[in-house]
Design brief:
The protein is an alpha+beta fold and 133 residues long. It has helices at 5-9, 77-132, and strands at 18-26, 30-37, 48-54, 56-61, 69-74. The protein has one domain (5-128).
């Protein structure tokens, strides 16, 4: 079973290559979703894919208007599912990057601590050698 069925239905199969996405409204009746990918140098695959989704019109009661209602355009439920899946992918990637940065910071601190301890031990050895001679 595919982990991201909505994206798969949209033709997005290489979810591990997704870096981020942008969602914007184009007028009242349409949303545009752009999905961006990390590609290797020389790849012939596109760096982004664009998808267009229609919005559905819905009448909502409004006592202030003369007609008794206003027309509201709702985001596509399919698009909402796709965005939820994209959020899961992007958040996981960002979490992995943050974990990687944290590990690197700890390694750098450990290197500094080891360097300081080594310098201190060398100084102690030199003082001992002076006392012995």
């Amino acid at each position: 079973m595919n982990e991201f069925p909505t994206l798969n239905e949209m033709g997005i199969s290489r979810t591990q290559d997704i870096t981020h996405y942008l969602l914007r409204q184009d007028g009242k009746t349409r949303d545009i979703l752009r999905v961006y990918y990390k590609r290797k140098k020389g790849s012939v695959l596109p760096e982004r894919k664009t998808f267009k989704f229609g919005r559905s019109a819905k009448m909502v009661k409004d006592n202030a208007s003369r007609s008794g209602g206003i027309e509201v355009y709702e985001i596509s439920p399919f698009l909402q599912k796709a965005v939820a899946e994209l959020d899961a992918i992007v958040n996981k990637r960002n979490q992995e990057i943050n974990t990687s940065k944290l590990i690197m910071a700890r390694i750098e601190q450990l290197e500094k601590d080891v360097s300081a301890a080594t310098s201190e031990l060398k100084t102690l050895v030199k003082e001992l050698e002076k006392e012995l001679t």
